[in-house]
Amino acid sequence: MTASFKGKTPSRRAFLKGSIAAGGAVFGASAAKAAEPDPLITEVQDWATGLGDGVDATPYGLPIKYESDVIRRNVEWLTADTISSINFTPIHALDGTITPQGCAFERHHSGAIELRKEDYRLMINGLVDTPLVFTYEDLERFPRENHVYFCECAANTGMEWAGAQLNGAQFTHGMIHNMEYTGVPLRTLLNEAGVQTEGKWVYVEGADASSNGRSIPLEKALDDVLVAFKANGEALRKEHGYPVRLVVPGWEGNMWVKWLRRVEVTTQAIQSREETSKYTDTLANGTSRKWTWVMDAKSVVTSPSPQSPIKHGHGPLVITGLAWSGRGAITGVDVSLDGGINWQPARLAQPGTAKALTRFYLDVEWNGEEMFLQSRARDETGYVQPSKAQLREVRGENSIYHNNCIQTWWVKPNGEAENVEVS
Amino acid sequence: MTASFKGKTPSRRAFLKGSIAAGGAVFGASAAKAAEPDPLITEVQDWATGLGDGVDATPYGLPIKYESDVIRRNVEWLTADTISSINFTPIHALDGTITPQGCAFERHHSGAIELRKEDYRLMINGLVDTPLVFTYEDLERFPRENHVYFCECAANTGMEWAGAQLNGAQFTHGMIHNMEYTGVPLRTLLNEAGVQTEGKWVYVEGADASSNGRSIPLEKALDDVLVAFKANGEALRKEHGYPVRLVVPGWEGNMWVKWLRRVEVTTQAIQSREETSKYTDTLANGTSRKWTWVMDAKSVVTSPSPQSPIKHGHGPLVITGLAWSGRGAITGVDVSLDGGINWQPARLAQPGTAKALTRFYLDVEWNGEEMFLQSRARDETGYVQPSKAQLREVRGENSIYHNNCIQTWWVKPNGEAENVEVS
Question: Is ipTM over 0.90?
């Protein structure tokens, strides 16, 4: 299987020409159409018959109405209330790596609040030489950085612990987004306040009613954490923490505190609700995995998938998906068509970058037989994404979070796909 | 002047502490406030007093209402009608490099039309072995690529030929956007049809009433041109050519044909309206510059700028802007505070990538004196962005397009900025 089109020219070209000769550029057209007129006459794109919208029509644009199904979706039965709930990025319908803010998944513990820049304050306190309170305008005066990072909820793919559940990449893997953030390194603000030698952790909290407080080791806080105010170039959307959120690259989304209100330097972890009763996983022996901050290497085929079935006939098929690792850059993705028996290297659209989504493609000729599609990522540390069986062996059956198992889509001869488990 | 914050810690930290000691984290606060209570008590961020919006509130989100001024804007007197006109990206208010589709500039010659994927057809004809017509679904079956590229209208900054005109980076430099495109290389489709040896050019046209036909040398068409269907991960917006537009990296935006309908392989250029009476520049000797496809290296300070004045007092100030080149990657940007007498290197947020926007920063201590802010980009070919005087010397005074001159903002002691020319 070659990755480039050129290597496949003969069959693909023959296929396309055959299709056209048979009556149209529509693939899978019946051979019975052979007697129809030249499609080049009937199938040419019509010209517009009138003028379109002027440049004053949409000062801020939205997707065209034909794409109204490419939206965030929540799952009603998943939580008791939409105020403390999640919705999912439509990753099955996206390509590339950037997630537009408008369809990037949300997770709130007490709803998305409205906070004006003018009213915004960020306190740095605790074990610092000088406690400080910054306004939004203050933050804009510190040197900024720009980085593309993924943000993944620790619960992403969590339903899969219990077996193949939700039918669609949006629902199994859509608690993730990937944006270009602009912000001030947290270390800059901590240095400004002067961290005292006893300080070993920071406790970060938001201004929403839940506060969503989390403890972060000082080493991470001084490394690549950003106090961010822009995503994909523009202000954070309300639901993403306007005007300021924390960006904790590679670490679970719950720590990316929105409406960031306070950073306290402490001697030890606070042991807050969000890091004790939540965001921990009970193992088979009854103890809990805790401080499971890093999101390990993971990948998923986004198309074909249950929400993105194959609608065309046999022949050329683009298999595509996303891979990511909280430990660094993705160095490779393998794809299996037969449930993990044989693997072939996918093509990375661009070289992987640290803690950001990487798009992969595998261009195949599909003969119409069923497939058990899987993808398997590896990162620059050499870590390889495990199977569901391997994960369960180590973690038991009681977990909710940090499921980075290999996902399987059963693609049927009719092109429809289903979430399944292979043993 | 150092680029990193650490090198500036003493003065900045002293400044911040001084500010807080004087009565608040608000910079520029009067010293008369010194007797006020500890700001850490009065200025802490309030907790939300209730719940926010649930995750079902915004299936597809928009910017928060407080950002309602960060929108595309057109200039009423610039064109006779908004149907054949332009609006401008609010670059003065953005950071990073990605432009959200919703506020990315539009240019139409007969308005933005609505075209369904189901109805879409792309013809490849002319000097090819087999004329082909592709459906949208066909295009999805070819190997895809992902690239971030800028798209700049040839007329961007065009008003500056006549001197400092429009007051704001949005209006002087906002005919530009930068997105991650997903598409099929045009060469793949041309190879599919089989380009005949006499073929030396392609003529590309859109389905809108203007057709906006342009000729492109075959060499470029076979190089990095994309037949794109996604931007920043999602479908192209209507106003950006849904469902399919051409992406012609580094070349003037007029060639990035939207609602792409047909690609004809020809022996020579068509000499269409858009490449003869338009998108050419009359020189002093009466002849016209033509085939000025490439957008040369250029940059602009986006903040401070007329629409983004300095609102805080003296001390730390972030100067930021964008740089780009149609010939490759940006390798450096210099910034001048005194109208081009002295220059200092800006910090690039990330290493420049070919034919894409690069964000630069210069972190300075502003003493409140007036500045004549300029930026000067250079690219990997060694080309250096020229002054307005240098451009006029070569091109005369009759041009409209391809003005990549150094821009000057006069920043006054009160922080307001104005578009000016320096001799």
Answer: yes
